[in-house]
Amino acid sequence: MLKAIFFTLLFTGCAKSIGPGIPNMHDFSGYPGAAFNSTNSPCIDGLMVNLGKSCATLVEFQGEGVITAVQCHQAKNKKSPWDKFTFYIVTDHHIGKPPQTIEFCADPVSVIYMRERL
User: Fold this and answer.
1) C or N: which end of the chain has fewer Cβ atoms within 10 Å?
2) Burial of 59 by CB count in 10 Å (0-12 exposed, 13-18 middle, 19+ buried)?
3) Is 63 left (phi over 0), alpha (psi -120 to 50) or beta?
4) Is 99 a residue whose pLDDT tops 50?
5) Is 105 buried (19+), middle (13-18) or exposed (0-12) by CB count in 10 A?
6) Of 50, 13, 44, 57, whose CA–CA distance to 31 is shortest?
7) Residue 2, phi then psi, degrees to nearest 5
């Protein structure tokens, strides 16, 4: 009886956790991969490729719709600037720039602004 309980607990500890993913966090490490689907925005595609190649952690997205904030929490290389800024993707050219940001990239689909994180 004791052996059965021991082995049950042992195997339970080795079981893979099948819980929900972390919301707003995305793995871009393989972006763009074989299933690459362009956003029709060179700015957005370029930002996602650079974050995917440079980030050691998942990429965080905040907001949906016209303004989306995107950031990398830890870059693979300490000298990399990709984890030092928050990027704001604005998909409506009639909206002004977010406060305390500078323009990073603009195309017909979007404007990307960036702000240094404190």
Assistant:
1) C
2) buried
3) left
4) yes
5) middle
6) 50
7) -65, -35
Residue recorded with tokens 């929900």 = 20
How many Cβ atoms from other residues are within 10 Å of residue 86's Cβ?
17
How does DSSP classify residue 55?
B
Which residues, in sequence order, are CB contacts of 114 under 8 Å at separation 6+? 85, 86, 87, 88, 101, 102, 104
pLDDT in tens, 78-97: 888 888 999 999 999 898 88
Which residues lie across from 24 on neighbouring strands?
Answer: none
Neighbours of 37 (CB within 10 A): 8
